Please model this.
Amino acid sequence: MADPKGFLTTEREGAQSRPVEERVRDWNEVYVPGSLLPIVSEQAGRCMDCGIPFCHNGCPLGNLIPEWNDYAYRDDWSAASERLHATNNFPEFTGRLCPAPCESACVLGISQEPVTIKNVEVSIIDKAWACGLVTPQPPERLSGKTVAVIGSGPSGLAAAQQLTRAGHTVVVYERADRLGGLLRYGIPEFKMEKRHINRRIEQMRAEGTKFRTGVEIGRDLDAAKLRKRHDAVVIAAGSTTARELPAPGRELNGIHQAMEYLPLSNKVQEGDYVTPPISAEGKHVVVIGGGDTGADCVGTAHRQGAASVTQLEIMPKPGEERAPHQPWPTFPMLYKVTSAHEEGGERVYSVNTTRFEGDEDGNVQWLHLVEVEMVEGKLTQKPGTERKIPAQLVTLAMGFTGIDRENGLVEQFGLDLDERGNVARDAEFATNVPGVYVAGDAGRGQSLIVWAIAEGRSAAKGVDRHLAGGASALPAPIRPTDRALTV
Model:
């Protein structure tokens, strides 16, 4: 145990954010660099080292949280890094982007503020990189087997790294011009600077993983031909079909899916554009969707100089305390204020968009909405609550409905889909096509980054067992049916 009295004597303290007026003028991460290190030892010392560490089950990766908390408390960064990497290939990703279901499951959280697990995690990995503790781990011998991984998001990268380290020759195919999937183009720079992706890619290259960008399986390369080239295939293409809003006026200029808007902003940071082709500058912006992607649009619009930003959510405003049907240690739906919301804008709950109104040139100018309420289990419009708000740029951040069905990948492989439109798989993450596996959102549906990495690691074990004839030393943190303690 770290500090036997730490949870009694030390209050929870998080990372220090940069002032709003400063950070909205740049695209750097919102937290003060290095602000966690002076307090991480004390914060890690709040860990109770419970007899039953529910944080393990709250985390899909099964992170060894009490162990690396203890090492962080003792300033043993090498041991802390080793324990962190024992279950997670990319803790700098999850430490910045994961909503931390482990903290919702923290035993201390029953009566006090939970341990700052996420902050301790990112402190350990940042310190490990700074001290040169993160090095390539190439395999001792090669198996002679080749594996293709489709997609370079967190699930694909995790599967590729595990399989490379197991001795297989792995080629990752990415349809975008750069590696990282939605980590690269869907996550704004102010949430995670892309240097974190770049150095992991370099580590993987040094281990032997090969990468091919600008290759979309199904369009640029026939999926059936890809299968013949390799001994196994892992589909980690994500859930990229965006949910649509079939409201009158949807065809007006200025209404875009979030994944049309955010990637272009990220490409500015990569140097591809001087100014984004879709910009919020001087415009009244409306973001439809109250989740993390919507918040990313809010923060991006602030930095682009929007005149105003309004975020709409069809569901009621969540409570600030656990609802009775979401008891500890489950992951509750709570009202949260992200860094983007700290920067301004208005959030409106329990409203539904009824139509868009444009000018004579076909550009959106107004969004018409109505308040809704739950009546007999259905969202119902409240008469007399109709109104309109200015909207010169609208982003749709309402989630995703499944794997891309337009590029031919599903049909060319001959894949079976489940009732939700995801690629069906068995307990080994294998599809109905021999030697073809699926991991991440393509099989699970839209989910969290921590689930994506867990799925990639687990699918890698299934592939390794297939290639090795039944045995595998790789860990498998989850099964396809697992839900852990998260929603």
